[in-house]
Amino acid sequence: MTDKPKLSMLTLGGTIAMTAASAQGAVVPKLDAADLLATLPELEIDLVTHDFRQLPSPDIGFTDLAALAEKIEQEIADGATGIVVTQGTDTIEESSYFLDRTIGGDVPIVMTGAMRHPQQAGPDGPANLSAAMVVAADPQARGLGTVVVMSDEVHAARYVRKSHSTSTGAFTSPNAAPIGHIVEQELVLLSRPRPYEPLPRSPRLTETSIGMVHAALGDDGDWLRPFAEHTDGLVIAGFGGGHVPSRLVPLLAELAEAKPVVLASRTSSGPVLTRTYGYPGSEQDLLSRGLINAGFLDPFKARVLLHVLVSAGADRAEITRIFHDSGEISVS
Ligand code: ASP
């Protein structure tokens, strides 16, 4: 018998695992779990490791995420009390949300990465990995779902954004705050996100295509029709509280009749409104034409959620209901 936490670590590549042939060369993912662990002091945990992928995170796709979720569920069934996933930071805000929405149960899934690669001065990978282990091993983390641990902060997957391209403080939760901190190698938890019922992962995940379009000043969207034809659903990242140029409205209304079209905000924080503006192209106009409100969900998380729902065959009413709940929309 042992009281030690039983952690399972899965590596997917990313800057945390990158090296170059020479000190001046550009880095690519190369290091495996054993290499990453060699940078940490000895750990008081039972740890199994899996070198799952060796990718820069822009190359992670839904096929990889579905396989990762399955592997994590298998590790949990085999007795893991916490999961640590290392991956590139570029897409961690999306992959963490995917895992958060599709894996049930109480076992915490803790994702981390690095902003500085191991050959730079002051690489943050070892500190982030060590902090992720602390969180995954702490019984307080049970029931938190998937979190991202970077720079000694714990961010809920539903809130976290990569908000800077190079800073070691790149990770923020713009609509909330970190839900916890790692202080003197211990987890200090400040708040707990409410749990979600896990959504099903359909085999159709890999063949579903959801497009994302950002509204931009003066863009009449002429190019959008042929692009939209090749998608099963769309996320429109509107201006401000959910607005687009009026010239785009007839096309968006037509598309919303044919497939789910979700309206998010391109601002990176704050919700889509429901009843403030009434001009053509305003949130009220678009919602009245069948677009689905993403609420507080940013366009990237909205796209992941729509992808999961469309691939599972959810109908418009179900998609609207789940977005209403996930986007924390308080008005009916
Ligand atoms: N481009 C890298 C990646 O996402 C950046 C990182 O790992 O932080 O894999």
Automatic annotation (TrEMBL):
CDD domains linked to this entry: L-asparaginase_II
SMART domains from the UniProt entry: Asparaginase
Domain of life of the native organism: Bacteria
GO terms (BP aspect): asparagine metabolic process
Domain Asparaginase/glutaminase C-terminal: 211-323
Pfam families cross-referenced by the UniProt entry: Asparaginase, Asparaginase_C
Keyword Transferase found: no
Domain L-asparaginase N-terminal: 7-191
Presence of the UniProt keyword Hydrolase in the record: yes
GO molecular function: asparaginase activity
The protein's name in its UniProt record: L-asparaginase
